[in-house]
Design brief:
- The protein is α/β, with parallel strands linked by helices.
- It is built from 14 helices and 16 strands.
- Helix content is about 30%, strand content about 20%.
- The strands form two sheets. Strands 1-10-12-11-13-16-14-15 form an eight-stranded mixed sheet, with helices on both faces. It has an eight-stranded mixed sheet with strand order 3-2-9-5-6-7-8-4, sandwiched between helices.
- Strand 14, helix 11 and strand 15 form a beta-alpha-beta unit.
- It starts with 7 loop residues before the first helix and ends in a 37-residue tail after the last helix.
Length: about 575
């Protein structure tokens, strides 16, 4: 069997032989062998509870420093602490790397920062009980301690709302939806991938069969979207605000879990109404009581703080390579989180894992020919902003900062450094164990990854999926034609319990998984750093043609001429 088609069982049969005969990359004469001695040192330090520091790092990040909402003082405080730790470990270039200047004046999508500094919410009549919830980010708090009765408003059309509620909502709390019907949790909340599920990931996905009807809804002839110049839809929250309501309650999920995200970052506080998500059990109790004709009174004291144009940044640090320091292997995950918990599984635990991988490489004196860099991204939850700007600034090939004529960001021409990015590895799928890696459709790299997995098969890394996955920061690299990959992780209870919820605390992290993950990532970083050649890439996605009038103009990112360079 060739290296490209050898299956898992074939590797198991050869695992023992690998101890006697070193595995080489790509089957080429003179290719570098896997350094089992260095991997052994990494395993010895990283897998032992007494010498691993990943959970200590995670605890300080989540328990002591707290949530890391993009643009908040909390994320800066956490970033500064991480920089101090990287310096303590001996990493170089550790710092908060500012995002490039946005010439549109909108601060790359963050005209305002926000944090919650006080949250008190309590039912006081007819029965007193505390209410579990949190403000939606970038919405205002209350004007000190306020108290009011609740009104259930499930209507959505403007005519009915105005006829039924005009003049009747002042100093009232609005329950903006019907209570949800919750089902019992028949299925296990936490789970790991079965061997059959992992095997299925290795099977290339099939497209729809010939003749299968399309399920994509077709737009009726002549229909148009609500873009510029089109009538804007009626905004219920603005109506409630104008009527003098105290705030709007909503809910979701159930079983004591509530998903709490963010509102608009462009509207000023006085243009909005307080919006609060509360757990479904409390919401349902209040809403059903109101439906029974019982007045429910709630008091609140919520303070949300705002900051104009916060300084946005990514957190970076590196270990310089000994032979090809200008070429770089990057490890990363998004540093930002939402604010209703401490962002442990999304994505502080992964950041602690990446930091531990760097510590292991440095502490064990792992051989590194290329530079290994860690980048922890800001603004991922708002659209991969930090990683996208970093790729545009350092490598080109993707969208950069916005311009007045192009608010989505100009495509930055490929730079010389584009060809010096060896690989990017990302971690951001909860707190579960790494079971493999998504090859992102890069067929040529799959046999290399299979060989790299051999030293880590005993701790659970076994599968390479040819399929692509998205929705996290490796997509910024992939979109620019760079080799960017996300690891396959056991889902555990990421959904429905911790992803973007009030339950995303340190307790959801799995210590043994975290230790193993750090070892595997450190090993992959070392193998990529020492690979005998640049790793194979997919063809770069086609980029929009640059109009002649825009060629050789100063880059909005660097100020240098934007002459394209071949990778």
């Amino acid at each position: 069997m060739t290296g490209e088609i050898m299956n898992r069982r074939g590797f198991l049969a050869t695992a023992g032989a690998a101890v006697l005969a070193p595995v080489v990359f790509g089957g080429r004469a003179g290719a570098q062998a896997i350094p089992y001695d260095a991997i052994g040192r990494i395993k010895t330090m990283g897998l032992a509870q007494s010498t691993s520091e990943v959970m200590k790092t995670a605890s300080y990040m989540m328990d002591v420093l707290g949530p890391r909402l993009s643009g908040s003082p909390g994320i800066r405080k956490s970033g500064e602490w991480v920089v101090s730790k990287m310096k303590e470990w001996g990493l170089t270039g550790a710092g908060l790397e500012p995002w490039p200047t946005d010439p549109t004046g909108t601060n790359n999508g963050f005209p305002r920062g926000w944090q919650n500094s006080k949250f008190y919410l309590h039912a006081v009549a007819p029965n007193a009980f505390p209410i579990t919830g949190m403000s939606i980010a970038w919405t205002p708090g209350t004007n000190g301690l306020v108290r009011g009765e609740c009104v259930l408003v499930t209507e959505t059309d403007e005519k009915t709302l105005r006829e039924k509620y005009t003049g009747k909502l002042k100093n009232k709390w609005v329950l903006g939806q019907a209570p949800i019907d919750m089902r019992a949790q028949w299925d296990p909340v936490a789970r790991r991938y079965t061997e059959e599920q992992l095997d299925q990931m290795e099977t290339p996905a099939r497209g729809p069969e010939f003749g299968t009807p399309s399920t994509t809804p077709q737009r009726p002839p002549g229909a148009q979207g609500g873009g510029a110049g089109q009538p804007q839809p009626f905004n219920r929250n603005n109506f409630f605000r104008d009527e003098g309501a105290l705030g709007v309650f909503a809910t979701n999920k159930g079983q004591g879990v509530v998903n709490i995200l963010g509102g608009t970052r462009t509207d000023a506080p006085d243009q909005q109404i307080p919006r609060i998500n509360i757990i479904a059990e409390h919401y349902g109790r209040i809403a059903r009581s109101v439906s029974q004709g019982q007045n429910v009174t709630i008091e609140a004291d919520i303070r949300n703080d705002w900051f104009d144009k916060p300084e946005m940044f990514n957190v970076v640090g590196e270990i310089r390579g000994t032979e090809r320091p200008e070429e770089v292997v990057i490890l990363g995950g998004h540093f930002d989180s939402f604010h209703s918990a401490t962002g442990a599984t999304d994505n502080g635990g992964a950041c602690a894992t990446m930091l531990e991988a760097m510590r292991l490489l440095k502490s064990t004196k792992a051989p590194l020919k290329r530079t290994v860099r860690v980048c922890l991204w800001n603004g991922e939850e708002q659209g991969l902003i930090g990683s996208r700007l970093y790729v545009a600034q350092h490598f080109g090939g993707g969208r950069g900062v916005p311009s007045k004529g192009n608010p989505r960001g100009e495509v930055v021409p490929v730079k010389r450094e584009h060809g010096r990015c060896q690989v990017y590895f990302n971690l951001d799928n909860g707190a579960g164990a790494i079971r493999g890696v998504h090859a992102q459709g890069n067929q040529a790299i799959m046999p290399i990854f299979r060989q790299w997995m051999e030293p880590f098969r005993d701790i659970g890394m076994t599968h390479v999926s040819s399929r692509s996955t998205g929705s996290t920061d490796h997509a910024s690299f992939d979109a620019a034609g760079l080799p960017g990959f996300q690891f396959v992780q056991d889902p555990i209870d990421y959904e429905p319990k911790t992803h973007h919820t009030n339950m995303d605390f340190y307790e959801s992290l799995q210590p043994e998984d975290m230790r193993r993950n750090a070892v595997m990532i450190a090993g992959f970083a070392m193998l990529a750093s020492n690979h005998n050649s640049m790793l194979p890439r997919k063809p770069r996605p086609p980029q929009p043609a640059t109009p002649p009038a825009q060629q050789q103009q100063p880059s909005a990112v660097t100020g240098a001429p934007t002459t394209p360079a071949s990778p």
